[in-house]
Design brief:
Keywords: DNA-binding, Transcription, Transcription regulation. The protein is 44% helix and 25% strand. The protein is α/β, with parallel strands linked by helices. It folds into 3 domains: 81 residues, Arc Repressor Mutant, subunit A; 78 residues, D-Maltodextrin-Binding Protein, domain 2; 101 residues, Periplasmic binding protein-like II (D-Maltodextrin-Binding Protein, domain 2, 3-Layer(aba) Sandwich), CATH 3.40.190.10.
Length: 277
């Protein structure tokens, strides 16, 4: 039996949603659907079925779920016993940065405690030395951390494929429907700097990347974001890049911060296998 597929099934059953399970597992929704299909096909059974806007367990699915629950509860108990004596490695980052950098093995590495926060909150936690590692799209100076440059990206504007807007200027953007991230995020501050104002007349503010992308796909506004976060949607022709004639796409540089007190400890042994650098 493929325990990875069993875990995916168990999480989907818990969430009663493929989309919510994908977020919880930190993998894409299509990948979750594909693994579920393969799991059912292997045994030629039906474990899940549509129910309204969500999904529900079949009678067989309920039996499998109950047994899977026992397996994963026992797994969690064993991990607690094995790791209780050693504190976890605390890694913080923006949701997009961690999505880009975390390898699949990270999800199951019990020694890692992951916090997905906006940039300002991460900086505040670093100032209090509450993080051992941090990944930020911003260069900050903190005497308690060593900084390393990671892979670059670009900041771009996107809209729904069917949106009539294809080319605009920065001044025109101010009066158009925009989808913006929350105050305190790097994305929000960069957009304000580019447009030269905080007075955005038709802005929808959201607290997470997934919601922003979904709103953009629904043609509710133009979204300013990292290119990596919308690459799949652009390739699927759900979104398109909007050309801003007086804006040159800026480089989005990611930085890894390592707390000096951690040097020579678990980081040296596990950093490169934990982060897909």
């Amino acid at each position: 039996m493929n325990l990875h597929q069993l875990r995916i099934f168990y999480t989907v059953a818990q969430c009663q949603s493929v989309g919510q399970a994908a977020k919880k597992l930190y993998i894409s929704q299509p990948a979750v659907s594909q693994q579920l299909k393969q799991f059912e096909s292997q045994y030629q059974v039906k474990l899940l079925q549509p129910q309204g806007r969500g999904i529900a367990l079949t009678p067989l699915g309920t039996k499998v779920y109950e047994q899977a629950k026992l397996i994963f509860e026992q797994e969690a108990y064993l991990e607690t016993i094995l790791t209780a004596a050693t504190p976890p490695l605390r890694l913080g980052g923006t949701a997009l940065a961690l999505e880009q950098l975390l390898s699949q093995s990270t999800v199951t590495w019990s020694r890692l405690k992951i916090s997905r926060l906006n940039t300002q909150t991460l900086i505040d936690q670093m100032a209090l030395q509450q993080l051992d590692l941090a990944v930020l799209p911003q260069a900050v100076t903190d005497p308690n951390y060593q900084r390393f440059a990671l892979q670059p990206d670009q900041w771009i504007f996107v809209a729904a494929e069917g949106d009539p807007v294809t080319t605009v200027t920065r001044s025109q953007l101010v009066d158009l429907p925009l989808i913006i991230r929350e105050v305190g995020s790097t994305t929000h501050q960069l957009l304000v700097d580019i447009l030269g104002t905080r007075q955005l007349n038709q802005a929808i503010e959201v607290n997470d990347q997934a919601t922003a992308i979904q709103l953009a796909k629904q043609q509710l506004g133009i979204y300013f974001c990292a290119a990596a976060s919308v690459q799949a949607a652009i390739q699927a022709h759900d979104l398109k890049q909007v050309v801003v004639t007086d804006y040159q796409p800026q480089v989005r540089q990611l930085y890894l911060y390592e707390r000096h007190a951690m040097a020579g400890s678990l980081i040296d042994q596990h950093l490169r296998q934990t982060l897909a650098l």
